[in-house]
Amino acid sequence: MPLPNFQSLIDRLRAAQPITDFHAFVGFDGYVDKIQKVVESKSALGNQYMGGISELAALIHSLSGKSGQIELVTEATKIGGNAPIMAHALASLGITNWCVGTLSDPIFEQMHPHCERVSLGPPAESNALEFGDGKVILSEVSVFERLRWSYLAHTIGIDTLRQQYAQSQLLAFVDWANLPHGNDLWEGYLTQIVQTTPTDNPPLFFFDLCDPTKRSAKDIREALDIVARYIPFGSVTLGMNENEARRIYLALSGHSPADTIRLSQTPDLAIIAAYIHQHTGIPTVLIHPTDCSLVATSEGICQVAGRLVPHPKVLTGGGDNLNAGFCWGLLTGYPLADCLLLGMASSGAYIQKGISPTRSDLADYLENWLLEL
C-alpha cells in the first residue's frame, strides 16, 4: 500500500469546508473523568510528581502488609468515556452526531454543539492517573448494569433508533469491555435496527472493544462474532491499541486475556493484526501503538510511522481522537495510509493541546510534523 502524501493531505484539509454532510451515531458509555497526577514529594516550593507507572507500582508494593497515603492532585475534571470523547472529536472535525450514553451530568454540556446528546442515565466515574509513560484509570462503572438492549430500545424508541441509523454514515460502538451487557446491546442493534432498516448507502461500522483484560475469552470471541455479522450491511472496522490487540489475540488463540506470561510472548503487531483479520473475517483491523499505526485488510498490512508528543498535556482520550480522525478519513474516501496519518495527527494534536482538533488544526499539526521530517 502507498505511503501517505503529507503535502497533498495538508492541502485537502485546508480546502475542506468546516462542516461535512456526514452524520454519525456513537454509543454507549459516559464518564466524568478526573485527570490526576500522583505526588512523589512535596515542599514549600511545590509538588514533585511521579514520572512513571513503575514508581507508583513500587510504592504500592512497599505498602503491602502496612498502610499509607498516596496523594493525588486533580488537574482537570472533564467529559469522559469513549463515546462522548469520540463524538466530540468527530464534531470538531465537522461530523454532526448523536452521542448515546450515560450523560446525565451538567459536565456534558461542554460537548461540541454538533453533538446531540441522548442520555441513558447518570455517568460512570474515573480517576485517570497520568504519567510520562502512560496512564492508570480507576473506574466506578456500576451504572452500566442497566444498559441492556431492552432498556436502550425503551428509552430511545425503536422508531427513533431506526431513523438515526438511516441518517448515519458512521456507526461507532465503543467501550464494550466495561459494558456488562455489551454483547446484548450490539446484537440487539444488529437484529432490531440494522437488519430491519433499509439504507441507500451502506454505512461504516466502527467497533472498539477497549481493554478486555477482565472479560473472558469466550465473551471476547462472542463479541467479535457479533461484529463479523455486521459485515453484510456495511464497511466494518475493528480498532484497538497495542495492549488490547495482544489480549484479543490471546482470546482468539484460546487463552485468557489476563495471562501475563503469554501476553509477553505474543508476536509482532503486524502478525497479530493479520491473525485477527483472518480469524474473525473483519475486513479492516486497526492497531495503534504509541509510535505508529497499522491496518490489516485483504490487501495485506499497511503501516505508517507516528510522532511522539514530547510534552503531552493530556493522555486520556488520545485513542478516541485517533479513532475519530481515522473514521473521518474513511468517510471522506482517503487511502488507508492517509487515514492512519489523519488518525495519528488527530490524536497527537489532542494530546499536545488538550482539545480535540479541527481540520485546520490537523493541517497545522501535519505541517509541523512534515518540517520535522
Automatic annotation (TrEMBL):
UniProt organism field: Spirosoma arboris
Signal peptide: none
Lineage: Bacteria, Pseudomonadati, Bacteroidota, Cytophagia, Cytophagales
Transmembrane segments: none
GO molecular function, one term: catalytic activity
InterPro entries: Khk_prokaryotic, Ribokinase-like
Pfam families in alphabetical order: Khk
Protein name: Carbohydrate kinase family protein
Domain of life: Bacteria
